[in-house]
Amino acid sequence: MSSIALGAESANPWQHRVDAADWEAITAEVNSVGGALLPPLLSASEAQQIRALYVDAGYFRSTINMARHRFGEGEYRYFKTPYPQPVERLKQALYPRLLPIARDWWGKLGRPVPWPDALDEWLRMCHEAGQSRSTAILLRYGAGDWNALHRDLYGDLVFPLQVVINLSEPGIDHTGGEFLLMEQRPRAQSRGTATLVPHCCGYLFTTSDRPVRSARGWSAAPVRHGVSVIRSGQRHTLGLVFHDAA
After folding, report:
1. Longest dimension (CA), the chain
2. pTM, two decimal places
3. pLDDT (average), residues 81-86
4. Which residues are registered as beta bridge partners of 204?
5. For residue 8, is it within any domain?
6. pLDDT tens across 162-206, in order?
7. How many angstroms separate the Cα of 92 from the Cα of each of 20, 48, 64?
8. Is residue 7 part of a domain?
9. How far apart are CA 158 and CA 154, in angstroms?
10. How many domains does the chain have?
């Protein structure tokens, strides 16, 4: 299967799906809890085709066994570039929608805002800083697998938002496998959020930390993410990270 064949029935359905989302409501939700459900970003057939790529090593630059690295249980593979068409088109469509949120967050935290208007320009900056390895991920979990709480920080240059898409159908392909966020709130107990992401839908969430109101104004709350134990079946997930790795 060629990457060009994926989604070939339309020139760019992924841009249309991203643009059709209620970004005002999504922004309010991610500002409130650090994560927000997105509408379907892939068709069922596209999700199945991307899942099927997992067994073809030609699409990937490396494979990670989570147990070996004490990341949990399961396995994931980093896509190599050029990405399959749906992966590249979704990243290009999502970046300008996420950019205003990212800039607002860093402005509230009093941090320099490094991100240019175009994703390609931002990735060029990453590459010039020594972060040139691709970071789009295809994850595969079986029964009993899970993903430890972590943050996807691959170098000094970080984009503060990322997206996962569930390529499997909850209740049919798998049970369990809720997406987890754990936020360490300033001078307070940590707050957890669990979301069962529907088939083909995306979930937008905090990569590293985000602004929360405190007695002193805005403070940075570190956020980690993971996946709860898969109780049965198999779950595939597409992860879209908007910075490259050192």
Report:
1. 55
2. 0.93
3. 97
4. 36, 163
5. no
6. 999 999 999 999 999 999 999 997 777 889 999 999 999 999 999
7. 15, 21, 26
8. no
9. 8
10. 1
Q: Is the pLDDT of residue 4 over 60?
A: no
**Which residues make Cβ contacts (< 8 Å) with residue 218, sequence separation at least 6?**
108, 109, 110, 211, 212
In a domain, 236, yes or no: yes
- The residue range of the domain holding 226 is 18-240
Q: Is 75 strand, coil or helix?
A: strand
User: How many C-beta atoms surround the C-beta of residue 1 within 10 A?
Assistant: 11
For residue 3, what are the contacts with CB-CB under 8 A and spacing of at least 6? 59, 82, 83, 84, 85
CATH code (residue 185): 2.60.120.620
CB contact at 8 A, 89 and 11: no
| DSSP annotation of 67 | T
% of residues, the chain, pLDDT over 90: 88
Whether 9 is in a domain gets the answer: no
Residue identified by tokens 């991920």 is: 137
Among residues 242, 214, 198, 209, the alpha carbon closest in space to that of 87 is found at 242
